[in-house]
Design brief:
865 residues; globular; ten-stranded mixed β-sheet; seven-stranded antiparallel β-sheet; 29 strands; Rossmann fold; single chain; alpha/beta; binds pyridoxal-5'-phosphate
Length: 865
């Protein structure tokens, strides 16, 4: 029979255990082990059946079961205790309240297209979402007043399974928000709050707003699946990264513009402070800046409207943009005409549409005039921007250099904050108890991780084996289930019960499957891989997982190649592919692996965080020097796979790098793991050198890869400066923003007249020596600008054959004389501080205390121009 109506019946809990509802609805349970244990304990069988989801668990209990629980005095006491603990956690001062001063923002809005918080709320596809989830959880733990904004996708991302011949199959199970830890935001009269965006042809896109509580951090998720909408509008939030570009554009308009409106509604209804800083996590949410410009251009009664330029200045001051991809193809772009079509429908009635279009224009030399580029817009709408690892910062500066013509790549104003991982979510409780001091809010983080040096070898080795064994058992179950889906019968599957060995060196490789991550590099020489797997003395075993984007045929072919290799009866006990990589699998996989393998095509991995999750569990990284590993590999915490960067073709690179991988496995990794230097302890062979690396990894990488370090960096390097700039810009009804905007306009207008007319230097000897001091004189035409509007710099250093300056330093020249008619002499000393080919040059830059970086306006006049 098929039901014709459906509704969700809420469980009513008796008074004595009523706080269970609160504990289930705040997602803190997902990283607070005692709370999670409480739910498991309620009914281990039901917990398993609902795949670890407290809201579903409570919904699945019968009335009798609930009555029984309500009368268990131990349980009632435990519920009270954990509820009190949650209340303390939610309200007591944390790191932020204790250590930050008045310049710290009262609230920070964090926008992201996806959030990976727990498998019970599957709203993520991969690294970006997991990072966003970790960002919110960590902000909560540290008391940082972040508010998350995103979309509620009815089907989240897809579920992956395999066909008989190893081809990826996708399904999209529909989520019922009423069965999720979400609360609908309602107006005072009880009706659901609504965000509405006008669409072309007189249509409207409306959305309701779900609120998830991530510890102290509220997360607002917009959902267009409501009866107010026509059928097409209802499906806007159907899937993460689904549909064509028009669908995607509507999602992003809803996320950025609708998300900003949702924040305002949330503040109005709850009294939450208005965000002082807006953090745009990747380009998808970029339209948030345009909505804020609209707010300032039409601010309502009592406040003076701003012009476009004034509003843009004010918005930029308080915005941080994070770019996540070093691959131009990974950037979100729309047809310019498509964006225009939507904005002409009146999305932002006071914002000139041409100005919106200019923001996304690819004005760099290789840009496409027909495209609207979300990352370019993100950079233009934010006064501060960052990449997600040191190397990625540098790659991003080169990638976007075209927008800052006249500047060297290293001057492009994109800094970096290296990603981190939320330790309580990703560390196994066994490792946590054994190796890390409990989390004291303000304790020096590095000290907490040194506890591992006190753990005896035998104990550490036993713990690592326990984690490996648990993974092996989990793999056997998953593999069996996967084969049954692929059409095998029980009778054929006896072999799955003995797949993998808890005493064999275990290597993990799991990630999304875009081409650059090279899932199949390990198959480059299949015979050589087989020899490693089947080595009688030092075998290795491999656990592989990963989803390919549904539209990526290449990725699916790679998965199929890998699956076919793992299907071979000769090796299938040593290598497995597990379908449907997700948070739940990851939490068993990271702790269980001895080695985490990562072999992207350098430098295309922006950061990567899976290796970090392995590291905090005592796994050693075996990785190409890309992303985070490039800055954190120290020679003793794992291995670097050498890369053939440079001119080699992709094919040649694959050959060279795969060979290096096999060689490392055979001669370095496996011998160390099997400890064949004859180590023994307590009768058991214990590989002391291996364990020394494990200890070193935990103690030194633990504090550095922790997202506490990441959030501290964001607060100090980006949020506080953005807050200070934003407040200054907004003060006195935006007086400073108006003044700065006018100054910028004046500078831009005058800039074509600015020239370095002549440079000379006094004191140059026939044979210059180190220590010689020159006096540099620059005759500069400033037109209508005055010397206070600019900085005149002398840049100097070693010169290359082509006269390019490197190892550059710079010094400011001081205004020395007004020569009349807009001409000025600037002058200053320059000390020759190195031998060899030496050169110098002079340039003019705009200068104001309101600029966060001298390159910010992308204006420069070089002497050579
Ligand atoms: C950590 C994680 C990722 C991201 O891993 P990368 O190293 O960035 O590729 C993706 N999916 C899941 C389930 C994760 O836990």
């Amino acid at each position: 029979m098929k039901a014709i109506r459906r509704f969700t019946v809420r469980t009513v809990l008796p008074e004595s255990i009523a706080p269970l509802g609160r504990l289930a609805r705040n997602l803190r349970w997902s990283w607070h082990k005692p709370t999670e244990d409480l739910f498991t304990q309620l009914s281990p069988r039901a917990w398993e059946a609902v795949h670890g989801d407290p809201v579903k668990l409570l919904g699945s209990l019968t009335r009798e079961e609930i009555q029984q629980l309500a009368q268990d005095p131990d349980l009632v006491a435990r519920v009270r205790e954990l509820d009190a603990d949650l209340q303390t956690y939610l309200h007591e001062p944390h790191w932020y309240q204790r250590t930050q001063g008045p310049d710290a923002p009262a609230a920070i809005a964090y926008f992201s297209a996806e959030y990976g918080i727990t498998s019970a709320l599957p709203q993520y596809s991969g690294g970006l979402g997991i990072l966003a989830g970790d960002h919110l959880k960590t902000a909560s733990d540290m008391g940082i007043p972040v508010l998350g904004v995103g979309l509620f996708y009815q089907a989240g991302y897809f579920k992956q399974s395999l066909s008989r011949d190893g081809w990826q199959q996708e399904t999209y199970p529909v989520l019922d928000p009423d069965e999720l830890p979400l609360t609908l935001l309602r107006e005072a009269d009880g009706t659901p709050a609504r965000v509405r965006l006008p669409l072309p042809d007189g249509r409207t896109l409306a959305a309701q707003i779900w609120r998830a509580d991530v510890g102290r951090v509220p997360l607002l998720l917009l959902d267009s699946n409501i009866p107010d909408n026509d059928d097409a509008a209802r499906t806007v939030t159907d899937r993460l990264y689904g549909g064509g570009s028009d669908h995607r554009l509507q999602q992003e308009l809803l996320l950025g513009m609708g998300g900003t409106r949702a924040l305002r509604i949330h503040s109005r209804l709850t009294g939450a402070p208005a965000p002082e800083v807006f953090h745009c996590n990747e380009g998808h949410a970029g339209f948030l800046g345009i909505e804020r410009v609209q707010e300032l251009m039409n601010p309502g009664a009592g406040r003076q409207p701003m012009t476009w330029d004034e509003a843009l200045t004010a918005v930029r001051a308080a915005t941080v943009f994070t770019t996540h991809t070093p691959v131009p193809a990974g950037i979100d772009r729309f047809e310019r005409a498509q964006v225009e079509h939507y904005f002409r429908a009146g999305l932002t009635p006071d914002v000139p549409v041409d100005r919106v279009l200019e923001l996304g224009a690819e004005t760099c030399p290789d840009g496409d005039p027909g495209k609207f580029n979300m990352a370019v817009m993100g950079l233009r709408l934010a006064q501060r921007a960052n990449g997600v690892a040191k190397l990625h910062g540098s790659v991003s500066r080169s990638m976007f250099q075209g927008l800052w013509q006249g500047f060297d790549a290293d001057e492009v104003p994109i800094t970096s904050v290296t990603n981190g991982v939320h330790v309580p979510s990703w560390i196994d409780p066994l490792v946590w108890d054994l190796a890390v001091e409990p989390e004291e809010n303000d304790a020096e983080p590095a000290a907490r991780w040194r506890k591992v040096y006190d753990v005896p070898d035998t104990e550490l080795w036993a713990a690592r084996r326990g984690l490996r064994e648990r993974l092996v058992l989990d793999v056997r179950e998953r593999l069996r289930a996967s084969w049954k889906k692929r059409g095998a019968t029980d009778a054929e599957l006896g072999w799955t019960a003995s797949v993998l060995d808890p005493d064999v060196l275990t290597i993990g490789f799991a990630r999304r499957v875009p081409t650059y991550k090279r899932l199949t590099l390990m198959l480059r020489d299949p015979e050589r891989l087989k020899r490693r797997l089947l080595d009688p003395r030092r075998p290795v075993q491999l656990v592989v997982a990963g989803k390919s984007h549904p539209a990526d045929e290449m990725g699916k072919r790679m998965i199929q190649d890998l699956v076919r290799f793992t299907d071979d009866p000769e090796v299938r006990h040593r290598i497995v592919f597990l379908p449907n990589y997700d948070i739940a699998m990851a939490r068993v996989l990271f702790p269980g692996c001895d080695v985490w393998l990562n072999n992207p095509l350098r430098p295309l991995e922006a950061c990567g965080t899976s290796g970090m999750k392995a590291a905090i569990n005592g796994g050693l990284n075996l990785s190409v020097l890309d992303g985070w590993w490039d800055e954190m590999y120290d020679g003793q915490n794992g291995w670097a796979i050498p890369t053939a960067d440079g001119k080699a073709s992709t094919d040649e690179r694959d050959d060279v790098e795969a060979a290096a991988l096999y060689e490392l496995l055979e001669h370095h990794v496996a011998p160390r793991f099997y400890g064949e230097s004859g180590d023994t302890a307590g009768g058991e062979p214990v590989p002391h050198q291996w364990l020394a690396m494990v200890r070193h990894t935990l103690a030194t990488l633990g504090p550095r890869v922790s997202s506490r370090r990441m959030l501290t960096d964001y607060v100090q390097q980006l949020y506080i400066p953005a807050c200070v700039s934003g407040r200054r810009a907004a003060a006195e009804d935006g007086a400073a923003a108006r003044a700065t905007a006018h100054w910028i306009e004046r500078v831009r207008r005058a800039w074509p007249e600015v020239h370095v007319e002549h440079v000379d230097a006094q004191g140059v000897h026939q044979e210059p020596q180190i220590g010689d001091e020159l006096r540099v004189n620059a005759y500069v035409r400033l037109g209508t600008l005055s010397p206070e509007d600019v900085t005149v710099q002398v840049g100097y250093g070693r010169v290359s054959e082509s006269d390019h300056l490197h190892e550059r330093s710079s010094a400011e020249l001081a205004p020395a004389q007004d020569l009349g008619e807009g001409r000025h002499l600037f002058s200053g000393p320059l000390t020759i501080d190195r031998s060899g080919p030496f050169g110098y040059t002079v340039r003019v830059l705009p200068c104001s205390s309101e600029l966060a970086d001298p390159a910010e306006l992308a204006l420069v006049r070089n002497a050579a121009d």
